[in-house]
Amino acid sequence: MSTQVEYARQQMIHQQVRAWEVLDNAVLDVLARVKREDFVPAAFRHVAFADAAVPLAHGQCMLAPKLDGRILQALGVLPTDHVLDVGAGSGFLAACLGRLAAHVRSLEIFPDLADVARANLHRAAVNNVAVEALDALTLDEQQRYNVIAVTGSLPAYDERFQRALKVGGRLFVVVGAGPVMEAFKVVRVSDNQFTREPLFETAVEPLINAARPSGFVF
User: Fold this and answer.
1) For the chain, N or C: smaller number of CB within 10 Å?
2) CA–CA dist 187, 90 (Å, integer)
3) CB under 8 Å to 146, separation ≥6 — which residues?
4) Does a cis peptide bond (omega within 30 degrees of 0) precede residue 179?
5) Where does residue 30 fall: left (phi above 0), alpha (psi -120 to 50 degrees), or beta otherwise?
6) Closest CA to 66 of 38, 95, 31, 91
7) How far is the C-alpha of 178 from the C-alpha of 189, rounded, in Å?
8) 164, 162, 163, 165: which is closest to 173 by C-alpha?
9) How far is residue 128's CA from residue 121's CA, in Å, rounded to a whole number?
């Protein structure tokens, strides 16, 4: 591994991720251990550590490193957790989740992107992540996961994801329409009670097939 690549990785962590208030040592460690450059399409490998989203097929993208860091920190993933990752993309965030959790189910609506994510995860020897080609908006599960990361935005909040949390489970979700959206952490505190904590403003492409009403209340 080249010294130049490792320097660029450390610069990414210190100048982008830590600078955006990601201070959890477990998160910083996993971002150092999972080789982001191996999940970036070859044509964009030169910007693997840039403070920007990286284009993927079908108009999708890898999230910027600092956003991955904020998601991981907000979710507080434990070694015993079972995780749902919505929007596998190239598999990078799923790999990070896999290094922190017991098991990750990662969903990707585009079959060819799902294949890419599987291949990337296999090369990275992340063996506790299962990638499925599936539209997450067809799910209707109850109390199945400890952690859910929704990496595409929801123009209107969809309660199906919070229903899939176990009691004590944590959900990361971005809600709203551009140019500015709000990231939330949702926690299931009992069978019928949830808390919602606003985290930060951002802008993320919406999930494919997500409802896009003219107005909503969250």
Assistant:
1) N
2) 27
3) 78, 80, 81, 82, 83, 101, 165, 166, 168, 169, 170
4) yes
5) alpha
6) 31
7) 30
8) 162
9) 9
- Paired tokens of 7: 């320097």
pLDDT by position in tens, the chain (length 218): 579 999 999 999 999 999 999 999 999 999 999 999 999 999 999 999 999 999 999 999 999 999 999 999 999 999 999 999 999 999 999 999 999 999 999 999 999 999 999 999 999 999 999 999 999 999 999 999 999 999 999 999 999 999 999 999 999 999 998 888 999 999 999 999 999 999 999 999 999 999 876 554 55
Beta-bridge partner residues of 106: 85, 131
pTM for the complete prediction? 0.94
The structure tokens listed for 28 are: 């910083």
Instruction: State the residue for tokens 């489970």.
Output: 169
CATH 1.10.10.10 fits 3-202, yes or no: no
Q: Alpha-carbon dihedral of residues 171, 177, 178, 181, nearest 10 degrees?
A: -30
Tokens of 193: 């009670």
Cα 126 from chain centroid (whole Å): 16
